[in-house]
What we know:
The protein has six helices and 13 strands. By secondary structure, the chain is α+β, with helices and mostly antiparallel strands. The longest helix is centred in the first third of the chain and has 17 residues, at 20-36. The N and C termini lie far apart (37 Å).
Amino acid sequence: MKAKDLIDYRRFPLDQPDTPAYxxxxxEIQAGLAADGCAVxxxxxxxxxxxxxxxxxxxxxxxxxxxxxxLCNIYLADGNPNEADDHPQNIFMxxxxxxIRADLLGPGTAAHCLYHWPPLRRFLADCLxxxxxxxxxxxxxxxxxxxxxxxxxxxxxYDTNEFTITFLLKAALAGGHFEYVPNLRSPEDECIEDVKRxxxxxxxxxxxxxxCAGDLQFFLGRYSxxxxxxxxxxxxxxxxxxxxxxxxxxxxxxxxxxxLYGKTTQAHEGQRKVSDNLLD
Length: 280
């Protein structure tokens, strides 16, 4: 399939940026992101596109990696002995979901075709107000599928990238809700006390999204704490995650990559290029 066949091209002509449909889509997404750092585009994938990408994920589901270490903090990293026990770095929660790695979704797959389609990057950049976007240079995690079977969950956490693009491929029959706290931290401030309140159970700032298969979600996950609640249904929840960067050559923290995906490569060796100085 061609990349444009994977999406609802009539509503989203991504290779025709001067059309009214394109301009309208960008404006609606920008409004959502300005409101709280999140925007959802309903039925972005075409029925054929959703079926193709979902089939690829289901065929690889048995190869999903599940970390043996089930407890992690919101930075998906080790604790900090130099901080108090109630510091977010030292508060550990259960994470039981798995991931289908990017190297299992290589050239020839529909997911890879869409991820590497230049008009998609141009569209995403326009929506996010960026001059240009690059493929995330991490060969293990730049495009992954989050797998959650019955009882599995993904605890509160921040993303490595400023923004993440996701496509829900298969919703949980019950549970499996995406929840987030908009703009809980900033590039200059970890806002530790605010984070503590959320982790202690304060839900006054927590939002929950209603997502359906085929939906596209824009999310500023570097600054907004988020989680996926436990899948309470008998069927798995599958979410395609695509990551992009404003700079070329950015990769993930090797320790975090190994913990989440069970593998690192030569791309993770040497000096790592990062986009900010926040805790991972």
